[in-house]
Amino acid sequence: MNVVILAAGMGKRMQSALPKVLHPLAGKPLLRHVIDTASSLSPSKLCVIYGHGGAAVPEMLAQLSGQTGAAIETALQQPQLGTGHAVMQAVPQLDESVPTLVLYGDVPLTTAASLGRLVEAAGTDKLAILTVEQANPFGLGRIVRENGSIVRIVEEKDASEAERAIREINSGIMCVPTTHLKKWLAALSNNNAQGEYYLTDIVAQAVADGVPVVSAQPSAEWEVAGVNSKVQLAELERRHQLNIATALLEKGVTLMDPARIDVRGELVCGRDVVIDVGCVFEGRVELADGVTVGPHCVLVNAKVGAGAQIKPFCHIEDAVVGDKSQIGPYARLRPGTELGEDVHVGNFVEIKNSQVAAHSKANHLAYVGDATVGSRVNIGAGTITCNYDGANKFRTVIEDDAFIGSDSQLVAPVTVGKGATLGAGTTLTKDAPAGKLTISRPKQMTVEGWSRPVKTKK
Ligand code: UD1
Ligand code: CA
């Protein structure tokens, strides 16, 4: 099968410099949704028709190459003279021996199942249209039937009053035998209310040529909803998020409110996972059995081990959290953080590019960067690994059972030996030997006879 994706329209109502099809839905460009769904049908050719926005669309597609099955070809449509004219730009690239499926780059949520039914209905010799009955069909092409059979499609602006009353609309998505398609496109005229070459006019040609025209229906109206404005984009975003939330609920995940979760990527959950309100998941996030995520957390490309608790307001990115660990509230795990089992990371603790082994704790106000931390280590409040000298980064090693007193600075590269203790306020610039107390603060003294200054009277 050939797939042609129409994406040349300018999307004026988006009020944006970004081409419409590049606006993100669930963190992914609209066009990418369509490409991903099309790719799941294993087309032999995939061609995107672009126009507005200059090189932005081909640049996005170039980044995709290798990630999708079929190579993505592009064709520039300039100027944009209608949907039929758009498909004409793909003609040289179409394989005549297989049908052609036409999709819209701004209709992101059509399911592969619905497209599969459409393609099946078309077979090799029929024209199949994805249609839907709509309560408010205003602005859309109407499906005109005679004795139940589709005879043509009429656009809103060309329709008679009786035709405007028809509620079965053309989604725009259709599957067409390719040799016929080429012939019909060549015969299109722009003699209509909009002066455009309408793809929809091929339907009447099919009827005249005795090619059967059939229809298939999506499972829901939102599957064929297009994005023309930020309002419609926001509506589809909510619909998509609700679909994802429903799928999570059906798999047994507890969502405190399915209307208040945003998944912009892939969220994989084990059994008995609980997610509180306002959380955002990006990239690939895995939550193992029994994980709880408190309200208002952001997890990006993260892996959370069984029984771990993520308390409210945490930000976790490119990080691994071990089983039974407790994170937050207000913790930040940055890229390269790997926490072992039962690690406690408390409020206002930032960890970056560090391994922290089992049962270690940093419960309050600390920065741990470029560090290797052993097991059962206690990192006191206010501890900072000074990993950066303004030019280069260095590692800090803290061995098992070490105790880092509050408000210590560990000036890397430096090692705290096994079981070592650092006194509070230590600025460690040399290695701290194992099993001993190391302390760097000056001795405490009290100044006798000192008195507070008093304000001079004027
Ligand atoms: C089209 C259909 C209409 C259908 C509606 C569904 C035609 C003539 N009409 O309406 O029956 O109900 O879609 O939304 O086909 N595009 C191009 N190049 C162009 C024109 C459009 O690539 O020259 C692309 C747009 O980017 C968009 C899609 O085609 O992705 C549909 O275009 P749009 O203008 O929104 O649809 P209509 O022509 O109004
Ligand atoms: Ca449209």
Give the beta-strand count. Answer: 35
Heterogens: uridine-diphosphate-N-acetylglucosamine, calcium ion
Q: Specify the CATH homologous superfamily of the largest domain.
A: Spore Coat Polysaccharide Biosynthesis Protein SpsA, Chain A
**SS strand fraction:** 25-35%
The span between the termini is 94 Å
What's the CATH topology label of the largest domain?
Answer: Spore Coat Polysaccharide Biosynthesis Protein SpsA, Chain A
Identify the CATH class of the largest domain. Answer: Alpha Beta
Largest sheet: 21 strands, parallel
Q: Give the number of domains.
A: 2
Compute the number of helices.
Answer: 8
Average pLDDT figure: 97
Helix content: 10-25%
Outline type = elongated
Structural class: alpha/beta
Spatial extent as radius of gyration? 31 Å
| CATH architecture level-2 label of the largest domain | Alpha-Beta Complex
Low-pLDDT regions: none
